[in-house]
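hey so u asked for the seq, here:
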Amino acid sequence: MPSKFNHNASPEIFRRAKELRESMTIAEQVLWERLRAGRLNGLNFRRQHPTSKYIVDFYCHQYKLVIELDGEVHLEKDQKERDFSREEELKNLGLHIIRFTNESVLHETNEVLFKILDKISELKKLNTNL
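ran it, structure tokens below
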């Protein structure tokens, strides 16, 4: 895998990503079924993608779009601070992040998919090279 694609993720991050792919949450499974194999407008997504020192839930390299799903733990103050710091580091790598709650994925799946497509449209407008 080219290092630019993974931003020099370590072998340990790759190992942990593989473990996470084998134990995805229900919300991750639901969204993956809608994203995998180009099912969303032919876009290619990866799940549990190693990126630098992190593992992002879903990643579309063509648009450098990271999709993160948040469970209840992400409502805690300490976790919110870690998420903010992590997001800033990912943005510094040139990545774009969109977040959804697990609940919205489970109960409003189509709306989540429309928001992903809207974000991609926005990214297309920002950068005509995409």
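The chain has six helices and four strands. The chain has one domain: 3-125.
lmk if thats what u needed
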